[in-house]
Amino acid sequence: MSEPPGRSGVTDGNQDDRALVGNGVSVSMAAKAYRLLRAVLMTAAEDDQIISANPCRIRGAGDEHPEERPVLAVAQVFELADRIGRRPVGNVRKVKNAAYLLRFQRNGEMRTHPEILHSRADAERALWKMGMDGRADCTQDRRFRALVLLATFASLRWGEVSALRRSDLDLEAATVRVRAAFIERSTGELVLGPPKSKAGRRVIGIHRRSSPHCVST
Fold it and tell me: Strands (DSSP E) along the chain, which ranges?
C-alpha cells in the first residue's frame, strides 16, 4: 500500500475503498481496518525496526465521516411503541379463479371485505392497512412495547434489552437490572452471556411515567 513515485496515493486509496465497499465491507469498517494496519506497521517500523518505513501513507484512508443519526421526539417514541408488535385480526382464504377473500374483525365481529383480491400479498397488505387506520381490530404483543420504551428511556443496547427477563424489572423502585446480553458471533449466531465488562452489569433507573408500560403480560 506504499505510495508510487510521482503520485499522491489518494486515487489508489479511493479505488481500494470502492473495491472493499463493493465486496460488502462498510466504509466505517474499511477505515477501522486501515487504522489498525497503519498502527501495526508503525510499530514494526519505529519500535521493532523490522521494516524501514511505514508504507501506509494514503491520506484520509483511516478517516470516518458517519452521518448524524436522527433522534426521535418523546411523542414519536410512544407512537412507535404503540405500533410495534401490533397485528390485525383477520384471515385470507383462496377462492375460485385464483382470487382471494379477506375476512377481518371490527369491534369484535368478523366481517368480509367487499372486494375480491387477486393475490394473497394484496389481501395481506389490505388487512394490514385496515389495521393501521383503525378499520380492523388489532392485537398487540406488549413485550415489544416494553422493548422500545426500555431501549429508549434506559439507554439499553439491543443485546441487553433483548436479554431482559421479567425478574430484572423492579416497578416499585422503578429500576431495571442488566445482568446478561446477547452477543452476535462472526457466524451470525446469537449467544446469551454476561455483559462484555464489569461496568455492563448495572442497575438503571427508569422514568416513573414509562415504568408501568414495561410490564409484559
Answer: 86-88, 90-95, 99-106, 109-112, 138-140, 169-170, 175-178, 181-184, 190-193, 202-205
Run of H or E residues at 161: helix 158-161
Whole-Å CA distances, 38 to 18, 19, 34, 46:
19, 19, 6, 12
Angle at CA 32, nearest 5°, toward 197 and 69?
A: 75
Cell numbers placing 1? 500500500
This prediction's pTM: 0.58
Residue 77 has phi, psi (to 5 degrees) of -65, -45
Share the mean pLDDT of the chain.
83
In terms of Cβ atoms closer than 10 Å to its own Cβ (0-12, 13-18, 19+), residue 183 is middle
Q: Give, for 40, the enclosing helix (H) or strand (E).
A: helix 27-42
